[in-house]
Amino acid sequence: MRTVGVEEELLLVDPETGEPRALSAAVLARAARREEPEEEPSFQKELHAQMVEFATRPQSRTDELAAELTRLRGEAARHAEEAGCAVAALATSPLAVRPSVSVGRRYRWMEEQYGIATQEQIVCGCHVHVSVDSDEEGVAVLDRIRPWLPVLMALSANSPFWQGRETGYSSYRRRVWLRWPSAGPTELFGTAGAYHRRVADMVATGTVLDEAMVYFDARLSARYPTVEVRVADVCLRADTAVLMAVLVRALVETAARAWAAGEEPVDHSISLLRLADWRAARSGLTGDLVHPVTLRHAPAERVVGDLLEHVGDALADNGDLERARASCAALLREGDGARAQREVWERTGSLREVVAACVRLTQE
Questions:
Q1: What distances in angstroms separate CA 129 from CA 7, 58, 150, 226, 248, one per listed residue?
Q2: What residues contact residue 220 under an 8 Å CB cut-off, 6+ apart?
Q3: Collapsed DSSP state (helix, strand, coil) of residue 32
Q4: Which CATH fold topology does 4-362 show?
Q5: Mean pLDDT in each 10-residue stretch from start to end of the chain (364 residues)?
Q6: How many helices (H) does the chain have, and how many strands (E)?
Q7: pTM of the model as a whole
Q8: Residue 292 gets which letter from DSSP?
Q9: Phi and psi at residue 56, to the nearest 5°
Q10: Domain chopping of the chain, boundaries
């Protein structure tokens, strides 16, 4: 069974006002005191000092992944409380924020190179790593999962507010993220050699600093033998983050099996994939999506159902089929993170209350 790991970025907020707080250094210092020196740190700094990131270890069993993800959210909350703030699984801040770029040569380079786009990137995502046997298998997977990635974004949508305003989007984080010059869907690569040549050519332009700054929606990890899928908002609830991991692992396994069987990937154009991406960010689960196979609009419920059917064998083999069905049904019935935020806003008229509710839901 393939291993899977999750990286989550969390927003640090004032527990009273709900405004983002630039306290990542204090939070990380407290986390470092509690981790074993010989282990790779679970918590790391991010581009902005109002954010903190954690990463689970690779796991084969979904129950163990879920337990670790919940534990790390709890630890993040404790470290933040000790530092005088709280953590919220919010992909964007509902309240206005003054950006504070973290200290470091890499971040300063980004600020100088990309200007206001760097300042505005206070956005929190959920990245899923799934093990692959080789770069060749990994690139075959990248070529075959492309059409399904907008569906994952729709399921995770959790950013309807930006700088104190309702955006009309379920995932406004996605619109902000695409301001990076290397972000977005990719063409078919065909071989690992072609993939690595494309990445090297991008670095050679001087527009990105290194391979890690090539922000494809799905890529080969520069550090681990994994495919890394990067389209999801950070999920408001931990069980939705687990669903992302379950679905990504199943997509990777399904794609690897198709490659081994000699099935060619579908050659959808990037222009159409961008439209599917935009629609998923705009609608989330509240309206139609662009179907990954037909590239025609279809109800979100049907598209999610077809995703489950597409990866059903892999889900069953991993022991995740019933969990995935139940989680998707709950999201379609009760709504995604964007809907949860909007419901608080409609009930209270207070973005501060939206943040407070999300702080609570982050740790459920």
A1: 8, 8, 17, 6, 8
A2: 135, 138, 139, 142, 192, 195, 226, 227, 228
A3: helix
A4: Creatine Kinase; Chain A, domain 2 (3.30.590)
A5: 97 97 96 75 92 97 98 96 97 95 94 94 97 98 98 98 97 97 97 98 97 97 95 98 98 98 97 98 96 97 98 98 98 97 98 98 90
A6: 15, 11
A7: 0.97
A8: T
A9: -80, 165
A10: 4-362
DSSP string, 142-211: HHHHGGGHHHHHHHH--B-EETTEE-S-SBHHHHHHTTSTT-B------SHHHHHHHHHHHHHTTSSSSG
Rounded to the nearest 10 degrees, the angle between the axes of helix 24-33 and helix 62-83 is: 120
Greatest pairwise CA separation for the chain in angstroms: 57
Alpha-carbon Rg for the chain in angstroms: 19
Identity of the amino acid at 217: D
Tokens standing for residue 89: 């699984």
CA dihedral 277→239→312→302, nearest 10 degrees, is -50
Classify burial at 192, counting beta carbons within 10 Å of its beta carbon; exposed 0-12, middle 13-18, buried 19 or more.
Answer: middle
Q: Are strands 125-131 and 51-55 parallel, antiparallel or unpaired?
A: unpaired
Q: Which residues contact 47 (CB under 8 A, 6 or more apart)?
A: 101, 102, 107, 110, 118, 121
Are 233 and 153 spatial neighbours (Cβ–Cβ below 8 Å)?
Answer: yes
Q: Provide the CA 321 distance to its chain's centre, in angstroms.
A: 21
